[in-house]
Amino acid sequence: MTDSASAAESDSDSGRTGAGAGTGAGTSDLGAGLSARAKLGLAGLLLLVAIGLGVRMAGRSNLGDLEVYHRVCARVGEGLDLYSYREGPEPDKLTAYIYPPPFALIFYPLTQLPFALVRGLWCALGVLALARCLWLGVEVLRLGGIPRPPPLALGLGALIFLRYAWSDISHGQVNVFVAWLTLEGIAAAEGERDVAAGAWLAAAVTLKLTPAIVVAHYLLRRRWRLIGWGSGFGLAFLLLPALAFGFGRNLDYLWRFVSEVTPWNARFHGFVGNNAALPGAAARLLAGSADAGQAPVPLLGSLAPSSALLVGRVISAGFLVAALALAQRARSPRSLALVLAATPLVSPIAWKPHLVVLILPGLLAGRLLLEPGRHRLPLAGGLIAAGLASRLFLGRELANAWILWGGTSAGLLLLFVGLALGPDLAEGPAATRLEAARGAAV
Fold it and tell me: At what angle do helices 376-387 and 359-368 cross, to 10 degrees?
């Protein structure tokens, strides 16, 4: 390939299409047909829905992970250990807090509020973050050269994964907020705003490790300015808790998070029946299912748990390499959908709330179903199989069995395969220059 072809490919592969060049997420034409009054009305309606759901959730007894955040992050102000009860009667018992230190510092102010208020506020903010995720997902499609996807196609793709988003919000988890930060970073990157993209993605990764696959994608795309700013912001975010913990203790927390907490989480929950991650499903089918921390009871096979977990790690590594390699050959937004769709195929743990990360892949999948080709069958099968985990369709027992026996995991795999087989729909000056440069290089 000549230098001109390489330069053109770099422009196109970085998502710098004519549809989005020089623009950011704030300049979307999604609401171009609405008057200012209509936009204000929709924003007001969304706010009322968020407040209403927040009030409803404030009184619920299903506390979920939010109770862990509220209880453990309060230890920040008490000078107690975040990750284990070292000062208590059970020094080896973990606190069940499995996030990096920056999250504890961010959440700490909420521990000073009554838990019912925190529950309602968390839900309301989650609804607003989810709405922003949907907006950003469509915006990333636009920046990639798909200006006005059919609403029905978008609705089909979004509907499947909105069910998981609601599971996240109703259980008081953090995944909707991580998805929001990730999509803000992606939209900024695709709009060529590298400083903002680096900040958003650094914030997402320092809250939860899974968005790191997006950073790896941009690293392979040689988006050096974005990576540089992201590294700087990430280092600052990781060191920020030292203001509360002290430099030495913060480093201890970071080391223990990487070397102890994360591996413990994978082992402790590796065989749980509602783990939808493909490595977890494979380990479960090979060795058996178990409640957290318990010995697995055989399902299909009776392989030693350590060997089954090793198989899961091999699957994780294989899909990480495959997703990044396939994404380098695709244009945005399909390249981004591929790396996001690979998340539950790479991560050893993926509860239903974690699947909110698939909003962008779901939106693109809905659009690609309208295009002829061999990708349509796996995409349709993937959306159906992933959606069947909902109790609305199968009821509680069958939905749980569907996840237990790998039905949801198979659906996530089919979604990834369909996206990998699907066409690139980006159209614009950058894509045209790429094809012309490739033709000149032959």
Answer: 140
Question: E strands of 272-319, at which residues?
Answer: none
The structure tokens listed for 352 are 């239903």
Residues contacting 439, CB < 8 A, separation 6+: none
Q: Which two tokens stand for residue 391?
A: 């109790």
The reported pTM is 0.85
Work out whether the CA dihedral 364, 368, 370, 375 comes out positive or negative.
negative
CB 275 within 8 A of CB 351: yes
Q: DSSP 3-state assignment of 191? A: coil
Tens-place pLDDT, residues 24-72: 444 445 555 567 777 788 888 888 888 888 888 887 766 678 888 888 8
Q: How far is residue 386's CA from residue 233's CA, in Å, rounded to a whole number?
A: 35
Give the pLDDT confidence score for residue 59 in this predicted structure. 76
Q: How many CB atoms lie within 10 A of CB 371?
A: 12
Residues β-bridged to residue 84: 94
Q: State pLDDT tens for residues 243-253.
A: 989 999 999 99
User: Does an H or E element contain 148, and which?
Assistant: none
Largest CA distance in the chain: 73
Distance CA(305)–CA(364), nearest Å, equals 37
Question: What length is written for the chain?
Answer: 442
pLDDT in tens, 150-200: 777 777 777 777 778 888 888 888 999 999 999 999 999 999 999 999 999
Q: Are 212 and 247 in contact (CB under 8 A)?
A: no
Helix (H) or strand (E) holding 299, with range, is none
| Percentage helix, strand, coil for the chain under 3-state DSSP, each rounded to 5 | 70, 0, 30
